[in-house]
Write a structure and sequence with these properties.
By secondary structure, this protein is of the alpha+beta class. It has a four-stranded antiparallel sheet with strand order 3-1-2-4.
């Protein structure tokens, strides 16, 4: 399913998605295709779902035009 379809079906709310297809340019991941898992009406519930997301699942708000994810490199930590 395309992001625009999800936005049309569930306007102005949070959704839990599985990323099916994406591409990366520099340090930004652009999501091309998603599978809708569920719509989330309550912002507090959306936050809880986001904190539990693993692998290719994300919570995103349909008010956004595109799904973009900033890829951060892990900093190296030195220990004793």
């Amino acid at each position: 399913m395309q992001w625009q379809e999800v936005r049309n079906i569930y306007p102005d709310q949070y959704v839990l998605l599985e990323i099916l297809n994406s591409h990366t340019e520099e340090s930004i991941q652009y999501v091309d295709e998603v599978a809708l898992i569920k719509a989330i009406a309550d912002p507090d519930e959306a936050t809880k779902e986001l904190l539990q997301c693993r692998q290719n699942n994300i919570v995103y708000h349909t008010g956004q035009d595109r799904i973009t994810i900033e890829i951060r490199k892990n900093a190296f930590y030195r220990g004793r």
